Amino acid sequence: MTLPKHTPYLNGQGGVRIGLKPINEENWLEIDDKFKDEINLKKNLLSSNRTEVLQTSTDSQAAQEELLELITNHLEEYHSDKYDFDGQIIHVKATKESVDLSNKDLVPIETASLLVQEDLFLMNPRGDKFYLEAASMSAPSHWSLTDKFSKNLMNVHEGVPNYKEKIGNRVNQIFNKLPTDRILERLNWSLFDSPNLFQPVDSTTHVRIKKKAVKDLYLRVERQTIRKLPVHGSIVFTIRVHVDPLLSISKNQDLLNGLDLAIKKLPQEMKDYKSINKIEKEVLTWIQDLKN
What we know:
Layout: E1 21-23, H1 35-48, H2 50-53, E2 54-56, H3 61-78, E3 83-86, E4 89-92, E5 97-100, H4 108-113, E6 119-126, E7 129-136, H5 145-148, H6 153-156, H7 163-177, E8 183-192, E9 218-228, E10 235-245, H8 253-265, H9 268-274, H10 280-291
Antiparallel strand pairs: 1-8, 2-7, 3-4, 4-5, 6-7, 6-10, 8-9, 9-10
Helix pairs in contact: 8-10
């Protein structure tokens, strides 16, 4: 069993924190051996659950077009070994299928989403606030796109413990001041009782955990990036979700110690919010048993 790629709990980190760090352009988007499965998931969801995974406003059309161009240019420069570029047609080697950039049956953010594994969000500026006005989201972590759509940044995070009080204004300042040549990355983690990427929920972001056995639990890590579109000033927000069995870290003492500390350091309201309070005893006992 391979170790998780991203381990934000390694040093006992958790809770509500900004945790942004700059990354280079070539590291913006992730492409790995799960590409085909995750693109197929997107296609299936766009067919069966379209309004749950795709929302756009007419005012976001131009920003979507800029996003699509940004992504295609990035892929051609940094991932040309995985795609063949033929004018408006991009041939995706992993799926052996083609994406037509000029297809008017799809909105631009939908086209862009079929080229990358990340979920894509556009936060458009109005005054000094940013509003969610276009999104393609196939891996919600107990999150409702239809409920959050068109809301501003603060209201999108309504219900997240301490977000408004501790970091909401700071994040909004970062969005406003972010240079267009800078890309920022952050990671967060949680524990789920299902490996499914698509885990929506209506009108609440609370996680509901039914299984408590360690063998049934999964580390769910979100890798998020933000950057600003040069022309329209919209914030591009990407999320790539990585899911690994909790058992995958059973032989790594550093990760076990980090997760142990991260859980213990979580404020109670965050444990309740993530439903870690439901499984805390089982997970910490498991970690302690592995240490002995």
